[in-house]
Amino acid sequence: MLGRHAGAGPEAFSTLAGFVEIGESLEDAVRREIFEEAGVVVKEVAYQGSQAWPFPAGLMIGFRAQAVSQTTAVDGAELVETRWFTAAELRAHVEAGHGYRPDSIGKLLIESWIAEAGTENTEPPENTEKTDENSDENDHGVRDPAAARAPERSTTGH
Question: What is the pLDDT of residue 137?
Fold first, then answer.
């Protein structure tokens, strides 16, 4: 799944980005940011790589996460659209000149996922999300990021 950020062109889909809150693990930050921006619950967050980022003198850390369902609900502020791509669709999208900034961690994330096509499941997840109203975990044991959502704030990390 890639997202189209507010102000981006109609085919300008990229990886999602955000900031780590004080006291939050990197994996929990990934879960929270994806849930806040795209409404997607993810599990199995795995580190992929990092890159220096000059604005504001930070570090971009790339992760891959497995979604529990393909249902999305964009926040409308940072993201205006999400799209699930198969490996073939994403390859064609990139070959058409869309996709990612060539100097960002997004390039590594997208190209490595495309390269692995055929060696793992690259189809969008089934829409199987189930939640128990009395628990902050779903049937897959994934903590619901909404249960520990940080106070609303504006972020601009990409």
Answer: 42
What's the order of all strands across the beta sheet hosting 13-14?
13-14, 2-5, 79-83
pTM of the model: 0.71
Contact 104, 51 (CB under 8 A): yes
Rounded Cα gap, residues 88 and 14, in angstroms:
16
| Residue 53, both tokens | 């980022």
Rounded CA-CA distance 16/43 in Å is: 15
Closest CA to 15 of 25, 26, 32, 30: 30
Q: Looking at residues 44-58, what average pLDDT do you find? A: 88
CA-CA-CA-CA dihedral for 154, 63, 111, 39, to nearest 10: -50
Angle at 121 between CA 119 and CA 126, to 5 degrees: 175
